Amino acid sequence: MDVIVEASAAAACVRAAEEMAACVRGTPTAVLGLPTGRTPIPIYHTLADWQRAGRIDFRHVRSFNLDELVGVDSNDPRSYAAYMARHWTIPLGLNASHVHLPQTTGDLERACSAYEEALEAAGGLDLVLLGLGENGHIGFNEPGTAWDSGTHVASLAAGTRRALVEAFGSLDAVPRQAVTMGLRTILSARRCVLVATGARKAAIVARLLEQPPTLEVPASALQTHPHVAVVLDAEAAATLQR
Ligand code: GLP
Fold this sequence. Notes:
33% of the residues lie in helices and 17% in strands. By secondary structure, it is an alpha/beta fold. Strand 2 (31-34), helix 2 and strand 3 form a beta-alpha-beta unit.
């Protein structure tokens, strides 16, 4: 894995945006896997600035989100669908039909296989951008998730749910499940770019980069992938040995 350490979170996000822009310059119809969370917001805003300035053209890109919460309507501002409209589709001026998220209503098993089929029909992921949960999750692949998992219904870990309390007001209101791309789905991407910023991520970043791969750290599955960039700020890299 290529490890890139930038001085600040802002610089790390610009670096990740450059990786995405380079992918789309090479393949204007690229298929991107995209995360939600706090980490990627500056990346999306940087790309929107570049799009407005004519430096990049993401109009032909198709994207598939890593995950969506079960029981949260796509019109609810706390849904990942709403997040993507706010931080991606609208600021970049994209056609909403190019932006895909897993369905989380109705028959969830069917929704999972439909998502895999749609991804395959689109030609697979050229690049997946990943955030990192403090317990090592990527998407909503919590510790213990099988590495050969496809898109599936996942139960959220207690700590993952606690991290969502701010958005939902109370722990009781936080969804218990999500539909997420599986680790196999993520690892099928031709290139993976994981971004972690801030001191809260330092311990899990050290485990990810300095320990052998383990089911307990889902992101460590990336160690088996040939084209991975891990982009960090100085705080997230603070406890690394090298
Ligand atoms: C969430 C998402 C992940 C995200 C992670 C980290 O649970 N499902 O895709 O990467 O948490 O979030 P943040 O970037 O806010 O730290």
